[in-house]
Write a structure and sequence with these properties.
Chain lengths: 264, 472
């Protein structure tokens, strides 16, 4: 066992090759998001598979629904606050909450605070909770210290940076590092990787033609790489990208990072 | 979706040549910016942004103080400051002055603020000739168009378009070489500079502690316009004031880099007051018109107030995937792109174009490049709420409001949420490929139809995650 970083405090170290994790509970609560629950359950299952492989014990608080982002982004703060409160109630007792979406994670850890700006009691709860909420790839790299999670997939993939994962959570190279450790997988960068796919929640239907045009520009970037798989941290980007790929009759598959890492 | 805004978006998206021109031009500006803010070129870029943000925050929080200070310092140097509530007051002042001095010809340097109040149109309506002297602005004036972009007004025009405009409007020979086109415009404009009675400029910064007006440009036309005519009138938004001359060290460094990818613009002029005894050039009269035009309405709200920090660099336009698709002329007012999407509803009222704040995927590219760190997505989200409030008063868009009330209730009641999800999935039927088409009822729901107009929907899974979890 090679330690890439000197031992600073007992039992905590950072390694690049296999899971030396931070000292914290092995119990992890999943917030699968409403979209994964209702439309992409296989992403949730893949996340469970990867986390269990790394030795975590999974809880799924069944009262969970949504983080409220659809209402917040659409300009309905009252509705968003009510749903956010429900989220706080459901996950208050969880020690670590893992989310398969950069966008929902950003909603909880950045925008909940905006929603409750004028409510100090709720704001204190938000602060407490948001420190325990992790986007899936960030949880793997930061908490689990993972690089190689034992995945194997013979294929060519490209990575799409979701806007909120990239710009609100600052996730860029860690997610790619996880992909580079997948045996058999070749990762090719698309240019530009960080430009929006055009989803944007209700934007995708209010300005459907514009949203579709943005997606088609994204698709061109994906096609130029020659990859067969486009990987993202966000189910919503995948729904948009996959929908346009499918409409264009292209055989490129959209996969969540968890699905790639679950393959073996 | 039948409004003028939506129609223009549709037209622009259908124009492949325009699409390509705008995408390429903004891409070039975007890349130029990236090259000069790179960590090995400007290690303290992020610190400068933070610094600029704090300076703007302080100044806008104490706008009255700094405006009065600026006014005192301009007046102590023999200039005059006039506060204008709206565009009409600007026009009236210029017209009255022109009449008193018998002025006929006005030369203008590029200014978004004068575009904001349609100054040229009003002056020409009253028989004055007002000539734009920035090359891009001059081309657009000849073509009778609004600026397409805050910094690069004729960004959408190719040199072939320009050749056509110069030939048609000036009877000039058909030249497609940019140097030759510039020479044609220059020959006309030199005569205008020499004959002009009044020069009108905007301002990039108003320096409170010295009473100086700072102008940044690349063509030198602003220098001619502000020094040759006997009268110089500055038209500037009240938010242009900065506390001290030393703050320019922060702002000038950020402005040119963010706007065009230059380290510094070619000309930076500091103009304070009329020509004094012993000086060889400069105007005899110097006026600064400070325009409100809706700006003070933003002051009470701490989140929205940051819209006034904007230094008009245009970086957010070049970064914006929406602007790069729909271009500048789709926007309902002179300010386009992300900054236009937050300034227009606030200056002109949300009803000017209620759907404007919604024309964003909230991707955050604008906030990432903004040199003064305006959180544009946040302001957009707040403006969306403002639109809903005004719609609620007019009892409009009630179905959507009802839908979000239902959303709120469902998301607080997990069992109902689960039941509703399964109901929708079973309605949709899990046949593969084109499943949605087999359910005409669902197809006719507006959002579903809009989605399917552009892309396919994923086939609904036979079980939700929570059902699968229970079966484990």
């Amino acid at each position: 066992m090679r330690r890439a970083f000197p031992r600073i405090w007992p039992n905590v170290w950072v390694r690049d090759d296999e899971g030396g994790r931070l000292d914290m509970s092995q119990r992890v609560a999943l917030f699968v998001t409403c979209m994964v629950d209702q439309l992409f359950p296989k992403i949730g299952l893949a996340m469970v598979e990867v986390l269990e492989r790394l030795g975590f014990r999974i809880d799924f608080p069944e009262a969970q629904t949504c983080c409220g982002q659809p209402a917040f982004n659409s300009g309905y703060p009252e509705e968003a606050r009510a749903v956010a409160r429900h989220f706080l109630d459901v996950f208050e007792a969880s020690e670590a909450i893992v989310v398969p979406s950069g966008s929902c994670t950003a909603m909880i850890i950045h925008h909940f605070a905006e929603l409750f700006e004028k409510d100090p009691t709720a704001l204190a709860r938000v602060k407490q909770l948001s420190e325990r909420v992790w986007e899936f790839s960030q949880f793997l790299t930061v908490v689990a210290g993972a690089g190689d999670v034992g995945a194997h997939l013979e294929d060519v993939a490209t990575f799409h940076d979701g806007c909120h994962a990239l710009r609100e959570l600052g996730i860029q190279s860690a997610a790619r590092r996880l992909l580079r450790h997948v045996r058999g997988l070749e990762l090719r960068e698309m240019e530009p990787a960080g430009e929006c796919c055009g989803f944007g929640g209700t934007f995708s239907v209010k300005f459907a033609e514009l949203s579709g045009a943005m997606a088609r520009t994204k698709i061109e970037a994906i096609v130029r790489t020659g990859a067969n798989i486009v990987v993202s941290l966000d189910p919503s980007c995948l729904m948009q990208i996959q929908g346009v790929l499918s409409r264009a009759g292209l055989k490129i598959r959209g996969l969540h990072l968890a699905e790639v890492l679950a393959s073996r | 979706m039948a409004g003028a805004f939506e129609r223009k978006i549709h037209e622009t998206l259908a124009d492949t040549r325009l699409q390509q021109a705008v995408y390429t031009a903004t891409g070039r500006l975007k890349d130029s910016r990236l090259a000069v803010i790179a960590p090995h070129v400007l290690p303290d870029y992020q610190e400068l942004r933070a610094h600029a943000h704090l300076l703007k925050r302080h100044t806008v929080d104490h706008l009255d103080h700094y405006l009065e200070k600026f006014q005192r310092n301009v007046e102590s140097r023999g200039g005059q400051v006039v506060f204008c509530n709206d565009g009409a007051e600007v026009t009236d002042f210029v017209l009255a002055l022109a009449k008193k001095r018998g002025a006929r010809l006005i030369v203008k340097s590029k200014s978004m603020t004068t575009e904001e109040v349609d100054l040229n149109e009003h002056l020409e309506h009253h028989g004055l000739e007002s000539v734009e002297t920035d090359l891009g602005e001059y081309i657009l004036q000849l073509a009778h168009e609004r600026p397409y972009h805050i910094v690069a007004p004729a960004l959408h025009k190719t040199r072939y378009d320009v050749a056509e405009i110069l030939t048609r409007r000036l009877n000039a020979p058909h030249e497609t070489k940019i140097e030759k086109q510039t020479a044609i415009a220059r020959a006309v404009l030199r005569q205008k500079f020499l004959a002009a009675d009044i020069g009108i400029s905007g301002a990039n910064f108003l320096v409170a502690d010295s009473g100086a007006v700072v102008l940044v440009e690349n063509e030198g036309n602003a220098r001619l316009a502000t020094t040759l005519p006997k009268i110089h009138i500055v038209v500037a938004g009240i938010e242009k004031v900065i506390p001290r001359a030393q703050d320019l060290a922060v702002f000038l460094k950020l402005l040119a880099r963010s706007a065009t990818g230059q380290l510094l613009s070619v000309y930076t002029s500091f103009l304070s007051g009329p020509r004094r005894a012993g000086e060889i050039d400069g105007p005899d009269e110097f006026y600064v018109l400070l325009l409100d035009n809706g700006r003070t309405k933003l002051l009470p709200d701490s989140a929205k107030r940051q819209s006034l920090y904007c230094i008009r660099c245009g970086a957010c336009l070049n970064a914006c995937p929406v602007y790069r698709k729909i271009g500048g002329h789709s926007f309902p007012w002179v300010y386009s792109g992300p900054i236009g999407a937050i300034l227009t509803p606030q200056f002109m009222g949300v009803s000017r174009e209620p759907s404007l704040p919604f024309a964003s995927s909230l991707c955050g590219a604008c906030a990432e490049v903004c040199p003064v760190k305006i959180d544009i997505p946040r302001v957009l989200v707040e403006l969306r709420a403002d639109v809903h409030q005004s719609e609620a008063r007019q009892k409009r868009n009630r179905l959507e409001k009802l839908a979000f009330r239902l959303f709120r209730w469902l998301m607080q009641h997990p069992r109902a949420y689960e039941w509703a999800g399964r109901l929708a999935a079973s309605l949709a039927n899990s046949a593969d490929g084109g499943w949605m088409r087999r359910v005409p009822v669902l197809l006719n729901v507006g959002p579903v139809r809009a989605w399917l107009s552009q892309r396919d929907l994923p086939p609904p899974p036979s079980r939700s995650f929570r059902q699968l979890w229970r079966q484990r």
